[in-house]
Amino acid sequence: MAENNGMGYMPKEEVIEKWQYASNLSDEELLAMDEVEFRARVRERSHHTLEIQVYHAAYRNLTLSATQADLTKRLLKLWVQRGLPTDAPEYKYASFLVESADKLSRGESVDLKPYTPTPVTKEMEDNFFTIVKERRSVREFTDEDVPDEILYKVLEAGLWAAHGCNVQSIRYAIIREKTTPGLFKGSDVPGGPIHLLILQDMRCYRANNFTPVRNQLLDAGAAGQNIVLAAHAAGLEGVWLTFPNQEFSDRLKNKLNLPDYIRPVTYVDVGYGDQTPHPPLRWPVEDTILASI
Ligand SMILES: Cc1cc2nc3c(=O)[nH]c(=O)nc-3n(C[C@H](O)[C@H](O)[C@H](O)COP(=O)(O)O)c2cc1C
């Protein structure tokens, strides 16, 4: 069913041929399906068949078809039949969308005011740009341990990154240099105190086999960027790093006993910084705009 083509698990051609949106799968198939794939399908289908339509109709005071939420309702029924938790994020969010779609199909309005973001003050804006510009790739660290709660906060920021089709493939491994000395031999920063490995559960992409590999990798990149920014915002420093070769990422995969469907994409080293590099200066933005029509 799967092959390792050097980038980790990829669907084989025959899987793509057989691949179907959840709407074309029977209840039996959806019940028998791997839980991770099923949940990703709930996220993807509620995103493509409901989320966009609900917000479009709510904004324009349009009435939605009474059948708009049928597929998501069916998936949520199967969710319960599978015994999955109804307080899970995708179940709660899809339920909100179903409720909203039902209101819109009855010609009622949907109140999105409770979800208005906190107004961005001048101070918040300035702070944001300070974090963006003062984040540096830092490659020297003190010996101070980083509490788990700070690491989790940083990793959570990665999960809040934009993600193609909302399939949410991002997974992590936290590897402390102290517990596995030498595992990162060959890295540009072999002694980085905490290595945050950004992984992807490739089963999630079975929810939408049309996702190009480029978008899958951008999903991981978006998480990585949030992570380096969050690390700096949380008082840590870090550096985004690249696997120097296949042997290196295989070594990590083997050490962690990661199954074939988990793809290591990249990693970020973090810790308390012990270096304040001169910023590698950037071009003026005007010089980077190749077109503005
Ligand atoms: C995808 C990606 C891969 C990177 N890989 C490495 C790496 O392997 N080794 C390294 O020392 N820095 C790596 N970096 C960090 C860049 O060298 C650094 O971001 C760049 O020089 C700009 O410096 P700044 O991050 O301080 O602004 C990587 C950054 C990105 C985004």
Kindly describe this structure.
The chain has 293 residues and is an alpha+beta fold. It is 42% helix and 12% strand. It is built from nine helices and six strands, in the order ββαααααααββαβαβ. The strands form two sheets. It has a four-stranded antiparallel β-sheet, sandwiched between helices. Strands 1-2 form a two-stranded antiparallel sheet. A hairpin with a 4-residue loop joins β1 and β2. α3 (35-60) packs antiparallel against α4 (70-81), α3 (35-60) packs parallel to α5 and α7 runs antiparallel to α8 (213-233). The radius of gyration is 22 Å and the shape is globular. The model is unreliable at 1-16 (pLDDT under 50).
Ligand set: flavin mononucleotide
| Rg calculated over all Cα atoms | 22 Å
Strand count, sense and barrel status of the largest sheet are: 4 strands, antiparallel
Write down the CATH topology of the largest domain: NADH Oxidase
For the largest sheet, list the strands in their spatial order: 3-4-6-5
Termini, distance in Å?
46 Å
Helicity range: 40-55%
Coarse morphology: globular
- Classified in CATH, the superfamily of the largest domain is NADH Oxidase
Strand content: 5-15%
Structural class: alpha+beta
The SSE order reads EEHHHHHHHEEHEHE
Low-pLDDT regions: 1-16
CATH architecture identity of the largest domain: 3-Layer(aba) Sandwich
Please identify the top-level CATH class of the largest domain. Alpha Beta
Please report the number of helical segments. 9
